[in-house]
Specification:
5-stranded mixed sheet; 5 strands; about 35% helix
Length: about 160
Amino acid sequence: MADFYLGANLVFLQMSGAREDILREMAENLVKEDLVEASFVSGIIEREKEYPTGLPTGSSISVAIPHTDIEHVKRNAISIAVLKEPASFRVMGESSMETPVSIIFMLAMKESHAQLSLLKDLMTFLQDEAMLRDLYDSATKEEVVRLIDRNLSLTASKGGDR
């Protein structure tokens, strides 16, 4: 597994708004944290239009996993948003369908093989309804970071080691 950065500064709780506004705010935060290039913002939004990432799960909590091309990324990172109210995302592989997304995992990965590996681990995580519910019910940003760190076997996910 590739190193990546996840800190409380990349977690949003009770976020609200329209899909594109949420994606823009999360991406702009990654730019502010100097983890991605400014072009990452438009890259995320345009890619979501072309290749939707909404993903219904076996539970009542749908997720989205927006990401974009590696050239927009300075350092591997993941940003997580738990939404106050679900936002409508088109479904991955079924773009004519929509799903009400409650949790967004925005990936910023420098190497495409790392992105595939992280996506595989995330898919396993998303199949565990109890963990997904724990993430959704997290009361603090630090709790989200600990839950992800503990369950995704990712390296260098400590918030302070940038």
